[in-house]
Amino acid sequence: MNARTPHTPAVRRIGIALAASVSALSLTACGVIDGIGGGDSSAAPEKGDDITVGLLLPDKDTARFEKFDHPLIKKEVASLTNGKGKVDYANAEASPDKQSRQFQQMIEDQVDVILVDALDAKAIASDVRKAKDAGIPVIAYDRLAEGPISAYVSHDNELVGEVQGRSLVEELGSKAASSKVVMMNGDPADPNTARFKDGALDELEGEVDIVKRYDTDKWSPENAKKNMERAIASVGLSNIAAVYSANDGMAGAVIDALKEAGASRIPPVTGQDANLDAVQRIVAGEQFMTVYKPFAQEATNAAKMAVYKVQGRDIEFDALTQDSVDSESEENIPAQLVSVVAVTQKNIESTVVQDGVYTVKEICTAEYAADCAAIGLE
Questions:
Q1: pLDDT tens, 60-76?
Q2: DSSP string, 176-219
Q3: Rounded distance between C-alpha atoms, residue 202 and residue 158, angstroms
Q4: What dihedral angle (degrees, nearest 10) is formed by the CA atoms of 37, 42, 47, 48?
Q5: How many angstroms from the chain centroid is the CA of residue 45?
Q6: Which spans in 242-294 are helix H?
Q7: How far apart are CA 349 and CA 360, in angstroms?
Q8: If 0-12 CB within 10 Å is exposed, 13-18 middle and 19+ buried, where does residue 165 land?
Q9: Residues of the chain whose pLDDT is less than 70?
Q10: How far is it, in rounded angstroms, from Cα 85 to Cα 74?
Q11: Rounded distance, CA 219 to CA 216, Å?
């Protein structure tokens, strides 16, 4: 792992993650989503409340970025700065070149700090260096970026893969050793992809037979579907016992490919991000699980880190960055790694519903009403 923290055995870490939905993730009860908590701005800051936080998010295909991350960060920045701070937001729409242009524009506009979820961790390094030269701190958000970043906030991404892999092994049960599994990994340019993959392999290797492995350029569902079609043609539809899919967008494409190939029963398929359509597929029994990463905790703490960094509030900043990570270009980067939760049919209500991510009404539309009733989600 990159985190400079003691390595906890995978099984124990996963147990903690699975239990978190009952305890630590009651975000709505704490007012995190509906009433995002502000901070104490009484400390003598380097800058006042009239600050601008640049926010660069990677794509619009992942539903959480537009629906949760951006509005949560915007709301928290306002709360922390008595309504005077603002967020300058740009979405790269899956184009690294566009993200670089947006980054450079923020440097030219002299924003006070930049939060960036990098599409290409290595390519963004030159922009990070330009920001540093301009006196603008950069905080890597959700994905670790190369270059002289000031901090990193994300989820425990190796644990994401471990949770996915262990969930598959447990679902396959006594048949795991003889089960043929297709592995659909994310974009190799995304540094999180390697961490998801490493975590998953820790759980899958030696437990199942991984017959095909694919990397998916730009996390594209279209590319994932083509790769799944190749896997079906090579391995045989009836021989595929499960599919490790690194995220929900690809999981939907994998399931479409399986359906179009004539699957009468969809084998267990994993996912990540708890997209609404993925939760609905879980309700319907098409997708086995997704990994829910508490968006509110990550987003609000990223906003706090950005504001505290600009205002010189070192004590508060350090309290949020008690982990540290290494990138290929930097060591001992202050970091916060948030835990994650596996979501299946059994705990939809105690995770994404309880935390206010979706209402039962949003999940259980007319198309899914019968499926919701069958699992007691009403």
A1: 888 889 989 999 999 99
A2: GGG-EEEEE---TTSHHHHHHHHHHHHHHBTTBEEEEEE--GGG
A3: 9
A4: 80
A5: 32
A6: 248-260, 276-283
A7: 8
A8: buried
A9: 1-46
A10: 9
A11: 5
